[in-house]
């Protein structure tokens, strides 16, 4: 256990040593009551327990207990899962979880009663994944509340929640939730195996786990979706994915995923299928345009001006005529400015944030054009592509898009359109090679699984989505039975 | 015979993309000139005839490979014994390597002639080869994926064919069958260079799930190639007059100059950019094939052997310096290709049929 | 392994390797004119545009002399390099240059991958250099203006299609000869004066605007603009949106060839200077038009036969309708080729009043 500097602490050998060691923290209480018939001592962390339960349930019972043994106490205490132990490591662990240790007459054994208090946020609407339609229920940091929310949506006995503790110091509880029989065993075994193999000290958030469970940690593409929305989690679980809930994190991880699911907003399922399909396609075009708009600007204006029709050429040249920089410097300047704005806006306190956002966005932009540092056409392009990068509903994807733009700009400057094509090939190859828990990332496009296309870049009506995705390699059971065909209404009077 | 791991196999549907992408390379950008030199306005008939011939070749190849999941390397060893089999295999590997060098160098020559005259050859060669390594390191599934996208992404270029039609005179194609059979035969021989690419099937066969059901898809691949080539040929014949076509080296690229879209004028730059996607699968497939031969025959790990091959291709590409040398390479490949397809494949077809009959009788 | 790959990829960034042509630093040429220079040199004139942020356009003309077209680049030392012809729109030749043959200069544009094929080739009555250098006060500059002028004439009016590609097509093709528009500089404007007829690449004849229209009608199935027709009784009628469907039929191409052109025209009457437009009047107008087209068509073909040129691509039509066509024999027989033209005019609409 080298997490702490050597010699910083000795391992306690007896209970007394442990109590003396822990007493160095102000929130540790070792309350001894010698006056009552039965001298007892309560050992607990005052910051972790619920004092009401202590006063209401435990103290009176201890006072009125007739038998002088721990077993007797265990029998009458109105709390479940009481343990009796003398093992120091267990006692320490339980104390740190919020148990109170009851010691009678300074015996070696103690009674461990669970009266821990969890404080967490109230349920609120998800902040990052807002949607106009649909439920606005988001997860909170408390694991039990989250499990409650999930179970309410799928009250099926086969919804399994398996717990693992990760993090040698933070001892974070992680729950893997899946529907047995729908999710593929292979996926579940993989994820459980990886969780067990995880070796880290403090897990602050589910994204830590996400990064450690990933197939390919060099990739900028997310291989699991972070989400706060319970409808999304349960929807994916129905498809055959599993969800990883982490204590202390309001994001759940969903895996395995494919690339198409990163572009899909769950709101699509609440709109009609034709409108949703249209918006999905618009979103995809927007994302593609967002990545390649500025690199194309650099490539075409630096090397291939002949591509523009003469009328457009006049506008472009006039807008660039006073600018002393080459297109690539212009683009870098604006891209970095927009990223600065974004980063600063994310961290500014709300009151200051709005004003500075307006100042940054409008004033700097207009001033830059007036000072002939950039052209207004480029400003429009950069602003539009920044907007378009936010159309993706998964936050991680926006960062990926932002990130991918820079090497593309570099390659565009280096080799013009060919550079863009070559880097595009690199990204394509990378995505083909990428897997999410062993499942190909670009399914259902490659390997082509035509049956899965009913819910990928467009969405067909619900009645057509009887079968689950082949991608998840789970049970191929159907989701619902076919309805009987409606009887034909006749429009004419004579027919029956 | 190795039991191939199920997760390394690819769906038989993908063989269509593999074959089609291996056949379409740089030839399509300039082939009308060479065929029309022999067959004039009947050159499109030559394309169709060559397509039919290659359907026959696919049939032959499937008959050769029909029992079990062998690839041609194992079959060579089986029929001819270890030593002569190895000679055949090494020859196949050299042929594939030549294919890589030719297509990579010709495409870079297109870039140098059309877009960036000062571009040093080694830069795009190195970039392509590094990318190829990245693809091959992912196994055959990645290669097949690149083929799939290499067909899908440039597919929309087909629609740009409508622009030259505006300036075309289709009466150029008349009168039909105005040429002698000899001229048509010469044209067919010239066309073979653009259709070569089905040899990859000889090596990819063990990687298919249900190889027998992939036969129809292989035929579809050749059909798709034939259709695309016929369309290009017909439009080239209508767009150019005979004398003009003989003058134009890259006739398809020149035809793209007349495409006018609302935002874009000189379309050939975009065409060449998308051609990066068309050429890349060819390079990956041939390098994969060559490295596979190396792994099985020379027993070097595929990872290391790819390095050796990449260095070899790099040096070869950089050594070819001007247009005439590129032309010479293309002619050389065309001649060798003719022998491979018109002699070697029928030869092993007959050999395999006889072998099968004989071993069955014993 | 991925480290090595990405490292290699990024190494290349250190080597800059391709020549940039940044859009606002490159002088963009839209038009160039060729005249005879001294000592057998070519005199090239270009018009350069500068673009203001306020979208005002300033143009300046430059001149230089050299033996080859690309050689002019070195002589234009008043211009910042690199001179790029990527956006070249119009090539003008003076009449004397045109009469001597222009394929050498066109070769420079055909060979260069940077030049497009939709460049318009034109002949100038007078000096091309004067035309280009003149300050016409056209808003877009002389190059884009002429490009637009010719383009609109082809699309909406009375000129057959022509560009560099078609010139090349007809030059290299057997049994066809190219045509280009003729431009003329008047005091404050540039006008299209007609069509120049070429024998391979040398100019040998002209057609005026009227003849050009009929030429366009007969040449190919065409959708033309306006035509003013003189009627035998002195009245005038104006036909618009004339659509022509043309069919060339060559009989016995190798033995005793004869040509029949069948022209079906469809037009609307938009103006009539007479009293009432009765049915008989309409038939009369149709018949007059038919006769006019036939007569002028035959005249033109006779003129072409005398000059030994074939702008209608009759030879090509013969080739497509005869097996094993013999071009040599055709060339001998062409001047005496019997030609008949059958014209059929159909009047469509004639306005909302009678």
UniProtKB/TrEMBL annotation, chain B:
It is a multi-pass membrane protein. It is found in: Membrane. The keyword Cell cycle does not apply. InterPro entries: Spore_GerAB. GO terms for cellular component: membrane. Pfam families: Spore_permease. GO terms for biological process: spore germination. This is GerAB/ArcD/ProY family transporter. It comes from Guptibacillus hwajinpoensis.
UniProtKB/TrEMBL annotation, chain C:
It comes from the Bacteria. Residues 1-19 form the signal peptide. Pfam families: Spore_GerAC (PF05504), Spore_GerAC_N (PF25198). It is found in: Membrane. Residues 21-184 form the Spore germination protein N-terminal domain. Its main location: membrane. Gene3D superfamilies: Nutrient germinant receptor protein C, domain 3 (3.30.300.210). Residues 193-351 form the Spore germination GerAC-like C-terminal domain. The keyword Signal applies. The keyword Membrane applies. Keywords: Germination, Lipoprotein, Membrane, Palmitate, Signal. It is a lipid-anchor. GO terms for cellular component: membrane. GO terms for biological process: spore germination. Belongs to the GerABKC lipoprotein family. This is Ger(X)C family spore germination protein. It comes from Guptibacillus hwajinpoensis. The lineage of its organism: Bacteria, Bacillati, Bacillota, Bacilli, Bacillales.
